[in-house]
Design a protein that fits this description.
The protein is an alpha+beta fold. The protein has three domains: 60 residues, Nucleic acid-binding proteins (OB fold (Dihydrolipoamide Acetyltransferase, E2P), Beta Barrel), CATH 2.40.50.140; 66 residues, Orthogonal Bundle (DNA polymerase, domain 1), CATH 1.10.150.20; 49 residues, Orthogonal Bundle (Helicase, Ruva Protein, domain 3). Helix content is 47%, strand content 19%. It is built from nine helices and five strands.
Length: 201
Amino acid sequence: MIAKLTGTLDDTGPDWAVIDVGGVGYLVHCSARTLDGLGIRGDAVVVHTELQVSENDMRLIGFSSGAEREWFRLLTAVQGVGSKMALAVLSVLSAEELQAACANGDAAMVARAQGVGPKLAGRIVNELKDKAGALPAGTGPSGGAIPLPQGSATADAVSALQNLGFKPAVATTAVAHAMGELGEGAELNDLVRVALKRAAG
């Protein structure tokens, strides 16, 4: 079982990366979010992995964190969700956002993923709701998950902060506080501006 790769980013494609570990190139299938976080060719990278074996295929799935891998395992345990669809969900939602969506019963947030219809999104949320509090993700002062208010602007704001280099937990917390300060109808630019001040402070 290959659980983690530490090496150099050798090449990337639409949904894969090649990680060079001691001269051996491992082809790793990743979500768009994980690929974006790997950097550029030649960068040192650490990727958490899951080896999937079927009758006619064997593939390595890569994740930016152990939490993302745990959510991948949960997603693929839901009927009708294969590895490709699970990666589609994790491409649009971080582990923290997915946890918040399941905890809040926000199927619309999960349905943003390509190929996931409202019915399947509802099934994912219903089946994983009870497990949302048991997995690692962004945590607040109380130790529980930060419940992000519903709506795509919050997810986009979290993504924007992560693209600026902030850790997912920091970005999620900052955006949750910004939403609380600005209110439900806050514009994306305002959310990012206020959240950025808090995260940087």
